[in-house]
Amino acid sequence: MAISEVADSLQSLTIDNEASSPLSATTQPDIEYHPNEENWKARTARRLAEDPSLPKSTLPAGFPTRLESPLVWEGKDWKDELEWVYNLTPEHLKEIDDAVHHFHGLSKPLGELSRSTFPLPTLAPILSTLAHALYTGRGFFVLRTIPVSSYSHEDNIIIYAGISSHVAPLRGVQDLNAGVLAHIKDLSKTHLAKTIGAPAYTTDKQVFHTDVGDIVALFALETAHEGGVSRISSSWRVYNELAETRPDLIKTLSEDWPFDGFGGDPPYTLRPLLFNHDSKIITQYARRSFTGFLGLPRSTSIPPITEAQAEALDTIHFLAEKYNLGLNFQKGDIQYINNLSIFHARDRFVDTPEKTRHLLRLWLRNEELAWKLPEKLEPIWKRLYYSAMPDEHRFPVEPEIRAASKGGAKY
């Protein structure tokens, strides 16, 4: 259903720039981390009734009326997973195993994992081609499958970082003390709810969002007993629908929003969610920055979001859901997505002692292929990719909750 039809059917990481002025809203709208479709439709109907001209608004200056690119797709466009899955051959797996032994022989810290220290003679050119597809093609692929049960935790990390260095050599710092590897796993049974501020550490559904950085890579050490489907959606397809049916929401998304610092300094920062830069549309946001989650509720001492922003948040979620592709993520798979043009999400899941969902995450960048960044994102990227030397990088072997999911951190 087009957004402009809703009324008829019903009758809806921060940057370093210091926030300067409060926004116009005085109270936080009725919106939570988990989107409520009825509330979204009601809000949309109410706003369209108050101002029927919204769908006839003009786009912000310079924003395209339509994007044409392989990065514009719908889930139904993909008929066979072989279109995005690359199956590793026995020869490739032997090459990877040889690279593990080669790296151990160098006696170097894990931060020194690179194309040269983890050589893949025949697989490397294939990974280079797939890397181009991330930036200029469909924007995602899955590498299948690493025999994770045959390796130690540390060796699986070596394999993951080593292979990924051939896709995008730079690893982003995700946590304090130069932590470049994150564990995505339910920790709600071992940690108090008040210490968990992100759905990554629960079995909850994760709504559509982006991380930070160019490329998000996820490595499945184990999948859930039930559920936990990884979902992706083209933000460029979502943009096209908004540009056609609700250009006013494009304007809303391209204006400054109050990102919650959750107790940090400054307490909130301002930047857009949507950028038009160097002929690219870039979306960067996490919903919990505006709604809070579990142990990190939305701060009450900072400006609330507006009704227009609340509608925009729900709209991009439900449109992403409408056009999503569910990936058949298997144990040992590595999933790579273009974080600048693709939203990702996850279904709720159920673990058992025998099947406990456990993913590893890297935030990657390929400088040779990388898009130019809008000025307001540059401080984030500088901090991610250039704040620590490789030999300082930390790869935690066991799961831990990131500082940013506890509040008051920069990452």
TrEMBL record:
Q: Name one GO molecular function term.
A: oxidoreductase activity
Q: Which InterPro entries match?
A: AlphaKG_dependent_hydroxylases, TauD-like_sf, TauD/TfdA-like
The name this protein goes by in its record: TauD/TfdA-like domain-containing protein
Bias (Polar residues) occurs at 14-29
UniProt cross-references to Pfam families, sorted A to Z: TauD
Boundaries of every TauD/TfdA-like domain copy: 108-363
Q: Where is this region: Disordered?
A: 14-37
Alphabetically sorted, this entry's keywords are: Oxidoreductase
Organism from which the protein derives: Laccaria amethystina LaAM-08-1
Q: Which residues cross the membrane?
A: none
The keyword Transcription regulation belongs to this UniProt entry's keyword annotation: no
Query: Oxidoreductase: present as a keyword of the record?
Result: yes
